[in-house]
Amino acid sequence: MDKDLERIVLSEEQIARKVKDAAAWLDGRFKGATAPPLAISVLKGSVFFFCDVVRAMRTNVQIDFMTVSSYGNASETSGVPKIVMDLAASVYDRDVILIEDIVDSGHTLARMRDLILGRGAKSFTVVTLFDKPARRKVDICADYSCFEIGDEFIVGYGLDYAQQYRTLPYVGILKREIYEK
Ligand code: IMP
Ligand code: MG
């Protein structure tokens, strides 16, 4: 385990199981879809989860990426998610699958939903690896959430603190002294 972590919340093996279950759920949801859904990764946090889920799916999907930034360098959300890099594809009349790393205040997800539905998507389905329901500021939730956590700051498997720890293959709780110093 990384020395800056308090404890591990999801091991590589546990993540693999969550990925399989999320992919199976999405396959069930899009069974018989006439056109391939567009799966969108909200960068950078969801990148590894996204790649694992779309590759575990049997459904033929197309992929696209969007970079949204809600934080500066710290662990507090500004409440105004910024689109740093937009999608390449049009979502008009498409089934859209949004893959998120974590839903915290809900600001990012609400922004994405309004944007994608505003551009005329046929449907909008959200899968998130983590959910922090106790921290919600906007009344919104994912259609499928893999793991619920309390008010703790986690890193790894895409999740960062000040752009660090993203490449850890597991997810753990960051020691408080790291972000309170
Ligand atoms: P929201 O807009 O407040 O829901 O925040 C969503 C974004 O905040 C996520 O995509 C993450 O980038 C970030 N975030 C929220 N909680 C955590 C955490 O515990 N660790 C790392 N990033 C987090
Ligand atoms: Mg993020």
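^ magnesium ion complex. Residues 45, 101 surround magnesium ion (ligand 2) (CB under 6 Å). Residues 12-29 form the longest helix (18 residues).
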